[in-house]
Amino acid sequence: MPTLLESFLPMALAGALVGFLIGLTGVGGGSMMTPMLVLLFGIPVPTAVGTDLLYAAITKASGVFAHHQQDTVDWKIVRRMAAGSIPATLLTLATLHLLDQQGEDVGRLLQATMVLMLAGAAVTLLFHQRAMRVLHDNLMPYRPVKPWFYLYRTQATVLLGMVLGVSVTLSSVGAGAVGAALLFLIYPRKPAVTIVGSDIAHAVPLTLLAGLGHLGMGQVDFSLLASLLAGSLPAIWLGSRVSKRLPEHWLRTGLAWLLLAMAASMAYDLLLAA
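-> structure tokens emitted (274 positions)
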């Protein structure tokens, strides 16, 4: 049986690796942490998802404070997203609890959702900048915003919150990379820092609520959570300092292909187990 140090050190190093990548790229940890726990350490998918959700809530909380201090959070956007995500999260958790009580293989559902979200995050990283250039250069800056567009934005933001509520609860992936990218498309005139700050502010209650729901089903490992936090928190700071010296395009492209590789590996595991 492994000692405390033998079990702590590998997970702390894994947390440091993911934290460093978060600092380098700004992409949420769920896209990397959960599949790494499953593929490299053999952590059961439900436990990996539940633990990572609480990890995300804790690590993002400090980011919310910093953005709030700088007045780079649009709380109207946050409220609109929460209006969709909170009910969707509660409904998804209730469904998972019911399936678990009936003896269904919840892990396969979580893993299948994770494959889809990892692929979506990878595509977002590869094509987001190109899509934003097209949107800004050819469409939005030259057209006045009509009254009906405000209604569209409200509905689209609530709908985005609903989608994230379901997908993040099932996979812990999407609150960062996918959520922020879609917010950029809904609010193309908002400053990038405000979109990022608003997305992080919404992710904290979303991941906390989803994580507590998984905790209620016994799908959170607190020793694992502590190990990951111990390694990742200083590494996030280090990665953010190093990122200024490295080309962002190469970092995001490399990370996108890594996410695609992890999605393919998890999809292959699903097919073998079918």
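The two ends are 32 Å apart (CA to CA).
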